[in-house]
Design a protein that fits this description.
Blueprint: H1 4-18, E1 21-24, E2 34-36, E3 41-44, H2 50-64, H3 79-96, H4 102-116, H5 130-137, H6 151-173
Parallel strand pairs: 1-3
Antiparallel strand pairs: 2-3
């Protein structure tokens, strides 16, 4: 059995190797981790077990793997493209993890189901990639109830995004106010 400190040390080593900044936020749950791809930054909960570890590894996958972030924001966000990004980031995380546990598989399955069952995003466009995804990953899973994010958790995530953006902006400016 892998200890929490081993998971944390491995995640830090991987981040360092790929030039990714890891920002630990104790107010986040492991499933609220997120990648800021252009800034090469992962904001995550403390790594205390296998699921918090793999969540941070998954977010690194969005940065490192070429298919981890494909969105063209000029044309809107496509839910199928998001599914493809998720699958790519999870595949990278699994390949680069110290081990793959049942808990990691459960988190993967839950996370993927939230994207496969998501309604189309307003302002998005029809996907050109749907048939390719079906060939690669099989047909979409049967509809299941989609876990709704608690409004307070959503606000915490938004506040974290704002705080992280401020830290990034300050570090880019060298701490100088403009």
């Amino acid at each position: 059995m892998t200890a929490a400190w081993e998971y944390a040390a491995h995640a830090r080593d991987v981040a360092k190797r790929w030039g990714i900044r890891m920002v630990e936020d104790s107010s986040l749950k492991c499933e609220e981790a997120h990648a800021m791809v252009k800034e090469r930054m992962v904001v995550h909960s403390p790594i205390v077990d296998d699921t918090s570890y793999i969540a941070s590894m998954h977010e690194m996958g969005h940065i490192v793997t070429p298919s981890g972030y494909l969105r063209d924001r000029r044309n809107g966000i496509d839910t199928v493209v998001m599914q493809f990004e998720e699958e790519a980031a999870w595949a990278w995380a699994r390949e680069n993890a110290l081990v793959w546990t049942a808990g990691m598989q459960q988190l993967h399955d839950w996370a993927i189901s939230t994207y496969r069952n998501a309604p189309p995003i307003a302002g998005g466009r029809d996907s050109e990639f749907g048939s390719i995804l079906d060939q690669l990953f099989g047909a979409p899973m049967p509809a299941q109830p989609v876990r709704q994010v608690d409004p307070k958790a959503r606000e915490r995530m938004a506040a974290t995004h704002r705080a992280t953006a401020a830290v990034v902006a300050a570090s880019i400016r060298g701490g100088r106010k403009r």
